[in-house]
Task: inverse folding
């Protein structure tokens, strides 16, 4: 069932007024995202006509914008990506680690998105890989998949990285598989300290190279002494890192990936009201044991928060590291399987896994759905040209 309210409705109702009121602060990327979501699945992008060969029912299906920030356009990309990942799973437990930037670092990240988000993902992975390689811990070369999220439940800026890690790795000589303990991967306190040190080292290097930019309330950080004081404060801050219990099996890993990889800042299914005066949406209050609550914002504040999470052009928010790095992944996975002496049981249909992992708020509507009247097969019988002469550029990276 399609959600009652959509982010697109907020932009269509209030987008023009928001652009007008924030003309001096709205970047090209944010404008493009707004335009894409407003026009998604409308006549402006064209479409096609479908007909049921059983009962003759016809309907019009408009094209999607395919923008990665659009809540309606993640399903198809997610399905293709999951199909590729399914063949790479190993028959071992998988752990889920989360690395979060503290507020004093998060605000620097917001003004330097491409550089600091990359640094966040790289140092989180380095912390895992370095600690796992230490003979005092695992003493193995591990692999991992990292996914960047920049939002919290209430759409505030909250950059953090979700890492999915096989529970073990290759020995230094590559001749055996070293498994970790069934319910323990790496010490969280040591991970947190190493992550903090690696990140701050990279941040200081970026400052010394003149790669960081500061404006507004952070403009004083252009001064070396002020920046040094900020780094000192960050060194004295506890950085939040936690490792969840392992997944039950490959199907659960796929279900998790389906929820966390191709995901927009908020799903349409979370919206409970869209009016001229407010936008209301549900959220989990983790300070109150995950209780479900409703937040009510003015339309302009909702749009502002949504646009906080627009990523730089070409930024890859899903990355692979260690033995899962792109250049060597196939070879290393084959070696891991040979050392494990068995192939993972992945004979369950991928479609069944996707259904179990599906998020109704971000379901894909671009596939041809069955006839709403008789359930028969719908086939495309015609094409509708877009009414917009120069469509915006899609951002699907």
Result:
């Amino acid at each position: 069932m399609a959600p009652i309210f959509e982010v697109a409705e907020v932009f269509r109702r209030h987008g023009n007024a928001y652009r007008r009121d924030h003309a001096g602060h709205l970047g090209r990327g944010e404008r493009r995202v707004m335009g894409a979501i407003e026009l998604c699945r409308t006549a402006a992008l064209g479409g096609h006509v479908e007909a049921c060969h059983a009962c003759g029912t016809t309907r019009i299906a408009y094209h999607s914008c395919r923008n990665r920030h659009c809540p309606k356009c993640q399903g198809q990309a997610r399905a293709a990506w999951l199909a590729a990942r399914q063949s790479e799973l190993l028959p071992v437990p998988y752990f889920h680690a989360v690395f979060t930037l503290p507020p004093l670092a998060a605000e620097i990240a917001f003004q330097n998105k491409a550089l600091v988000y990359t640094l966040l993902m790289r140092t989180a992975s380095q912390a895992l890989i370095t600690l796992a390689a230490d003979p005092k811990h695992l003493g193995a070369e591990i692999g991992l998949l990292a996914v960047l999220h920049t939002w919290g439940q209430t759409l505030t800026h909250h950059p953090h990285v979700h890492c999915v890690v096989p529970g073990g790795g290759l020995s230094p000589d590559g001749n055996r598989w070293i498994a970790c303990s069934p319910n323990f991967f790496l010490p969280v306190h040591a991970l947190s300290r190493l992550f903090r040190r690696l990140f701050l080292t990279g941040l200081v290097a970026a400052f010394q190279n003149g790669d960081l930019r500061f404006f507004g309330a952070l403009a004083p950080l252009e001064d070396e002494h002020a920046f040094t004081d900020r780094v000192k404060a960050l060194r004295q801050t506890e950085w939040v890192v936690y490792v969840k219990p392992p997944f039950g099996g490959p199907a659960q890993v796929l279900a998790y990936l389906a929820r966390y990889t191709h995901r927009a800042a908020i799903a349409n299914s979370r919206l409970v009201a869209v009016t001229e005066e407010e936008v209301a949406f549900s959220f989990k209050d983790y300070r109150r044991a995950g209780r479900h609550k409703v937040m009510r914002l003015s339309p302009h504040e909702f749009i502002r928060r949504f646009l906080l999470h627009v990523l730089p052009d070409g930024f890859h928010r899903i990355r692979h590291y260690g033995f899962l790095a792109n250049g060597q992944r196939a070879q290393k996975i084959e070696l891991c399987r040979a050392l494990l002496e068995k192939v993972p049981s992945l004979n369950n249909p991928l479609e069944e896994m996707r259904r179990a992992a599906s998020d109704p708020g971000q379901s894909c509507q671009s596939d041809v759905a069955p006839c709403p009247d008789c359930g028969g097969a719908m086939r495309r019988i015609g094409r509708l040209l877009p009414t917009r002469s120069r469509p915006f550029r899609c951002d699907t990276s």
Summary: Residues 343-366 have pLDDT under 50 and may be disordered. Residues 7-69+364-384 form one domain. The radius of gyration is 23 Å.
